[in-house]
Specification:
Elements: H1 2-17, H2 39-48, H3 52-55, E1 62-63, E2 74-75, H4 105-109, H5 114-133, E3 140-141, H6 165-180, E4 191-197, E5 204-205, E6 208-209, E7 214-215, H7 219-226, H8 228-234, E8 243-246, E9 250-251, E10 254-255, H9 260-270, E11 276-279, H10 283-289, H11 297-307, H12 316-326, H13 331-347, H14 370-383, E12 385-389, E13 403-407, H15 431-436, E14 440-444, H16 457-466, E15 469-475, H17 496-506, E16 511-516, H18 524-527, E17 534-539, H19 545-553, H20 572-575, H21 595-598, H22 629-635, H23 638-653
Parallel strand pairs: 3-4, 4-8, 7-9, 8-11, 13-14, 13-15, 15-16, 16-17
Antiparallel strand pairs: 1-2, 5-6, 9-10, 12-17
Helix pairs in contact: 2-13, 5-6, 5-14, 6-8, 10-11, 11-12, 14-19, 16-17
């Protein structure tokens, strides 16, 4: 046993000590290896020592390294949206066969628990570091996705905290801090990257795809809807993220990755961003080939680097930079980008001795630890939303004498409960797994998620007619909503609604409908059906999702989640184009408004809806005193007051 431990320890040390550029001479005598110097001085020295011919290979996510300076190759692209996930930088092998699979972001966000957001990110970064320490992950993780979930058809809305700019900003602030901060303030635990900047929320809708889309966004909508979460992400006083990803789409005619206003004027100069900017994968190529913004490969290289982008997820820059440099492009553009890239690597400790870096000492026993399992379970418990509970149908009693009919295409969902951007989970508890731990279960499929086969509905009715009560697990999955795939309809797909109503009609006991999915479906016909006694939205609840759902169904946990996006009626999609980025109602276009902030119609369920088994009472009291505007103004500092007064007068004049 001691021999095994020694061998494992020796292998671990050999992995994390290998290919470190400052461990030997002559590098350890150069300023870039002097840890007493500020990082900007160290990086400036490093970049000056790299030959121009060696710089080209550093501009891809699969950075080639610099052999003359013992700088190893590095894969910038690792994913960790809700757990370390499949990506080029992540390897499921050896000691790292799996990682904790937390609920999809849409479910976690529904908890409205900012401490939980931070705890999940901290657990993810701990596992990520442990994987890096044995050579099975990078240290730069391209998460979170904080684009506004502006349209229910969007295939990637599930990855986001929802439709509210303030909630998104709070989510990203706490998530970034959990990812990057830890026990040692001198180093980043891992590097987090906020995506997709900016205005990204369309995959492929009615012939328009994300690679060609030009998002026309008003200054007002940019300021109060599309920007706040990104400012919270990168502001030094908030998330202070070390990475941004520019998006595929253009914004007001300029591709995001060539958009100086977004990347430099706004992110770096106005918000104080200090980090690197990567393109989305092949988005640099899209600047030239899809948006036709530039007329040559030389111009494309110059446009993206001049705008402030630093690295290409793809090969456009490595393939075309040599010719661009021959044709006169300044190497200073390369050096500026390399300073940003190597600054992040130095903040991660990649050029420093290992002795005083606690993160390099994390071993793989932290992966899916009991603590992380508990966090994943709590996140599912807190994020599941109770929408309807007539006559206190729930919670059920867990009696051995009772039989539950469990019906529906998502009842046995395992992989589905992870949503997208997931890795290898250590285990997956489906809804029927969780329910079976409480009562005897009789199962029937009822129907598939998205076809017209009604032949199994009769069998589902027979099962429901003989059971004490019926639990229908329906909804959508990644075949309906996903990256590259927007919905056309927000109705329940296939014959699910017909199946639900048929089973509800023939059920002997009460009926509970549970929905999986990130984007909502229209429940207007089901919401008021007296035969459907309770409705639950579970999103994609992660590795312990079935357990958390059962705990709520049987009263071990009181539901506390709240919807983070509006549930619209199905006709909503006929009123507004997905290409319409406007948030506010527009009589000319017919846009009825987006999100709870601006939608003028009647929602099926509103943002923030969520019931509990607990009864709450509250009342408003009379306010005995008021603050006057004059009192507030007099309390402001002279400097702030001068700016405030100037802005106030400017607004009044306008």
């Amino acid at each position: 046993m001691k021999v095994e431990v020694f061998v494992i320890f020796t292998l671990l040390i050999s992995v994390i000590f290998a290919d470190r550029p400052c461990d030997s001479s002559p590098n350890n005598g150069y300023p870039f290896c002097d840890t007493s110097l500020p990082i900007n001085q160290r990086v400036t020295d490093l970049v000056k020592r790299i030959q121009d011919s060696d710089k080209i290979g550093l501009f891809s996510n699969t950075a080639s390294g610099v052999s003359s300076l013992s700088i190893p190759a590095y894969e910038w692209w690792s994913e960790a949206l809700h757990g370390v996930a499949d990506s080029p930088g992540v390897h499921w092998q050896g000691e790292t066969l799996f990682a904790t699979s937390f609920p999809q972001v849409c479910t976690t966000a529904a908890s409205f628990d900012t401490d939980l957001y931070n705890q999940i990110a901290s657990a993810i970064s701990t596992e990520a570091r442990a994987m890096n320490n044995v050579g099975n992950a990078g240290l730069s993780f391209w998460a979170p996705n904080l684009n506004i979930f502006r349209d229910p058809r969007w295939g990637r809305g599930q990855e986001t905290p929802g439709e509210d700019p303030y909630l998104n900003a709070q989510y990203v602030k706490n998530f970034i801090q959990g990812m990057q901060n830890g026990s040692d303030p001198n180093y980043l635990k891992v590097s987090a990257c906020c995506k997709h900047f900016a205005g990204y929320s369309l995959e492929n809708w009615q012939g328009m795809d994300r690679f060609h889309f030009n998002a026309i966004i008003s200054e007002q909508d940019l300021a109060d809807t599309y920007f706040p979460a990104f400012e919270s992400c990168i502001s030094p006083n908030s998330g202070a993220a070390s990475g941004i990803m520019c998006s595929y789409n253009a914004v007001n005619g300029i591709p995001s990755c060539a958009n100086d206003f977004l990347l430099t004027t706004t992110a770096r100069q106005k918000w104080g961003f200090e980090g690197y900017i990567t393109s989305d994968c092949d988005a640099v190529s899209d600047v030239f080939n899809s948006h036709h913004y530039t007329n040559s490969t030389d111009a494309t290289c110059s446009a993206v680097l001049s705008a402030g982008m630093d690295i290409d997820c793809g090969n456009f820059l490595p393939d075309n930079l040599p010719q661009a440099l021959k044709d006169g492009m300044s190497t200073s553009l390369l050096d500026t980008a390399l300073v940003n890239l190597f600054s992040v690597q130095m903040r991660l400790g990649m050029f420093d001795p290992l002795d005083n870096q606690p993160y390099t000492k994390l071993n793989t026993t932290v992966i899916n630890s009991k603590q992380h399992q508990k966090i994943a379970l709590v996140a599912a418990q807190e994020g599941i939303v109770l929408l309807k509970n007539d006559n206190s149908t729930l919670p059920f009693s867990a009696s051995s004498e009772e039989v539950a009919a469990v019906v529906g295409s998502n009842a046995m969902a395992h992989v589905t409960i992870q949503g997208n951007y997931y890795g290898n989970a250590p285990y997956l508890i489906s809804p029927i797994d969780g329910i079976s731990a409480y009562v005897k279960v009789n199962y029937s499929l009822g129907c598939n998620i998205n076809d017209d086969d009604k032949t199994k509905i009769a069998e589902a009715c027979e099962v429901a007619a003989m059971a004490t009560y019926t639990i229908i697990i329906a909804g959508i999955d990644q075949s309906i909503e996903s990256e590259g795939h927007d919905r056309v309809s927000i109705s329940l797909p296939g014959v699910q609604e017909e199946m639900i109503q048929a089973v509800a009609d023939c059920s002997k006991g009460p009926v509970v409908l549970v929905l999986l999915g990130g984007g909502h479906v229209d429940l207007s016909n089901i919401k008021d059906d007296p035969n459907i006694n309770a409705i639950i939205w579970a999103g994609y609840p992660g590795q312990s999702g079935g357990q958390a759902l059962a705990q709520i169904l049987y009263g071990d946990i009181s539901p506390a989640g709240r919807l983070v996006s509006t549930m619209y009626k199905s006709d909503y999609v006929n009123q507004v184009s997905m290409e319409d980025m406007g948030m506010r109602p527009n009589k000319t276009s017919g846009n009825p408004g987006r999100s709870y902030r601006f939608f003028e119609g009647e929602a099926v369920y509103e943002f923030g809806t969520g019931l509990s088994y607990t009864t709450f009472q509250f009342q408003f009291t009379n306010v005995s005193s008021f603050l006057s505007l004059q009192a507030i103004e007099s309390s402001l500092s002279d400097e702030f007051y001068t700016e405030y007064k100037a802005e106030k007068l400017g607004i009044l004049a306008a």
